[in-house]
């Protein structure tokens, strides 16, 4: 088991030079060469993760973050195809020839409305209105380093095959990967690998919820709210009427259903009847067909609200993700690789920092030592949603999570932003990079594993499977975060 500490590649080389017996034993183990290649990228992982954390760019606006990843790949000899699927910040980078095609996904978008320094106590940044509260800066950097480590191993070993890094924008509400899957960019991939920031280490086969979102826009008639109320028709009334009906609808949905909204615009002054208001809705369920059924009911509430308030309504579907199709054949091998790498251990300074963060969780705090542990393997339903789901219906897909955050941290929190820019986050990304490197090499050299994963994939999809996107044929909403 390899613990992720502050040791860098140079330190590792020095230690091996002092221990020739250990070196001989390691060279007899193919995994040791792979881990050495991955460890050699540790500085790159930290540097890139910190830079993307600083950028904190929102979905489809990640010009600097995407450009940084592409620059790093170009220096390593990857063939770049930028702007794929009509998305300026999306790209595909490939190295190698022949053999199987193994893909690694890389995300890099931040979340709006949340900011935090790397302080262990709440410290909003006045000049920053977004933050990496889901750790996508780590996701992008760790995946980048894994792709480069695999590329160097392929070249040194002479192993045939192609390693691809997919730069996938706007996971947070933009469904960047869905447009890429819809464009057929994963159709020739043998296996796709991904990972995510978390507060624990796990390669469990966890599914996700399908989801769809839309902005419902109500239009009414403005008037003086006191002087001529009879002449006005409030668009905000339309939004509130819709929300009231949806909240009543919740009582009559199945247990896996999730419906949530935020009013994005509701007027500027109480004495002006607002002629425009907007509400942004998400609908989720474990089954894509149930999302569609719930959506029909949601649209009916919008129409009813407009009719009852004398307003007009239209809506724009913003994103939609299919549920994640797990592949247990691959997941069990990924878990084996993760256990080989091991979890994250804190220095004394990091432990003190983590303890301060942990105090903010109250009863939700977890033991700090759990960051060094690997969670038991299981198949379960996750209640989040991800556009990796659509990739998983295009090609066999497997992922993992590493302890980039203090145990007990919730995603989309200020604590997650703080850890994602800290050494704790960087160590978690390095653990993920090592695991992905081992997994990719296994897939390149193990045709039986690839065949078994494909057989499970084909059986799960069914003989008559046909891909259908939950966002329809719309173009990418490149301005949805502006």
Textual characterization of the structure:
This is Amidohydrolase. Pfam families: M20_dimer, Peptidase_M20. Keywords: Hydrolase, Signal. The protein has 2 domains: 9-207 and 323-461, Zn peptidases (Aminopeptidase, 3-Layer(aba) Sandwich); 210-321, Alpha-Beta Plaits (2-Layer Sandwich), CATH 3.30.70. It is built from 15 helices and 14 strands. The radius of gyration is 24 Å and the shape is globular. It is α/β, with parallel strands linked by helices and 482 residues long. A 6-stranded mixed sheet has the order 1-2-6-3-7-14. It has helices at residues 9-17, 20-27, 30-39, 42-55, 63-75, 136-157, 176-182, 235-249, 288-309, 328-341, 348-359, 388-392, 414-420, 423-445, 447-461; strands spanning 79-82, 91-97, 101-106, 111-112, 130-131, 161-167, 191-198, 205-207, 210-219, 258-265, 276-285, 312-321, 379-381, 397-403. Helix 4 packs antiparallel against helix 6 (136-157).
Number of domains: 2
**Unreliable spans:** 5-27
Looking at this structure, what is the CATH superfamily of the largest domain? Zn peptidases
Range of strand content: 15-25%
Helix content: 40-55%
Domain Peptidase M20 dimerisation: 213-304
Pfam family, one: Peptidase_M20
GO biological process, one term: folic acid catabolic process
Protein name: Amidohydrolase
Write a concise synopsis of the structure shown.
GO terms for molecular function: dipeptidase activity; para-aminobenzoyl-glutamate hydrolase activity. The chain has two domains: 9-207 and 323-461, 3-Layer(aba) Sandwich (Aminopeptidase); 210-321, Alpha-Beta Plaits (2-Layer Sandwich), CATH 3.30.70.360.
């Amino acid at each position: 088991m390899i613990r992720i500490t502050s040791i860098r590649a140079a330190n590792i080389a020095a230690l091996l030079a002092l221990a020739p017996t250990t070196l001989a034993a390691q060279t007899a183990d193919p995994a040791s060469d792979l881990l050495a290649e991955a460890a050699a990228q540790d500085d790159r992982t930290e540097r890139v993760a910190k830079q993307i954390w600083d950028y904190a760019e929102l979905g489809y606006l990640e010009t600097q973050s995407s450009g940084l990843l592409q620059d790093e790949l170009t220096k390593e000899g990857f063939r770049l195809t930028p702007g794929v699927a009509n998305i300026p910040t999306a790209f595909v980078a490939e190295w190698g020839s022949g053999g199987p095609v193994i893909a690694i996904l890389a995300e890099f978008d931040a979340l709006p409305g949340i900011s935090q320094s790397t302080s262990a106590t709440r410290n909003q940044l006045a000049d920053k209105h977004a933050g990496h509260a889901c750790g996508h800066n780590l996701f992008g950097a760790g995946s980048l380093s894994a792709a480069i480590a695999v590329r160097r191993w392929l070249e040194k070993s002479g192993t045939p095959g192609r390693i691809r890094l997919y730069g996938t924008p706007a996971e947070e509400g933009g469904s960047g990967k869905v447009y890429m899957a819809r464009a057929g960019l994963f159709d020739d991939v043998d296996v796709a690998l991904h990972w995510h920031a978390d507060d624990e280490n796990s390669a469990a086969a966890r599914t996700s919820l399908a989801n769809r979102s839309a902005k419902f826009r109500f239009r009414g008639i403005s008037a003086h709210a006191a002087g001529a109320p009879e002449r006005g028709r409030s668009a905000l009334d339309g939004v509130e009427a819709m929300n009231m009906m949806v909240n009543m609808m919740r009582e009559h949905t199945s247990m896996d259903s999730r419906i949530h909204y935020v009013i994005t615009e509701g007027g500027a002054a109480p004495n002006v009847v607002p002629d425009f208001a907007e509400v942004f809705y998400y609908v989720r369920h474990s089954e894509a067909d149930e999302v569609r059924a719930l959506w029909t009911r949601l649209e009916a509430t919008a129409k009813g609200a407009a009719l009852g308030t004398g307003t007009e309504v239209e809506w724009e579907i913003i994103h939609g993700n299919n549920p994640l199709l797990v592949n247990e054949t691959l997941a069990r091998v990924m878990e084996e690789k993760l256990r080989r790498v091991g979890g994250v251990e804190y220095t004394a300074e990091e432990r003190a920092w983590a303890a301060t963060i942990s105090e903010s969780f109250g009863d939700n705090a977890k033991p700090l030592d759990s960051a060094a542990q690997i969670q038991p393997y299981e198949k379960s339903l996750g209640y989040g949603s991800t556009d990796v789901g659509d990739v998983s219906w295009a090609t066999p897909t497997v992922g993992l999570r590493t302890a980039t955050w203090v145990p007990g941290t919730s995603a989309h929190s200020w604590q997650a932003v703080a850890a994602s820019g800290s050494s704790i986050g960087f160590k978690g990304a390095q653990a993920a990079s090592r695991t992905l490197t081992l997994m990719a090499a296994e897939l390149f050299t193990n045709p039986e594993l690839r065949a078994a994963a494909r057989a499970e994939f084909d059986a799960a999809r069914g003989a008559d499977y046909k891909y259908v996107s939950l966002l329809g044929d719309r173009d990418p909403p490149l301005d949805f975060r502006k």
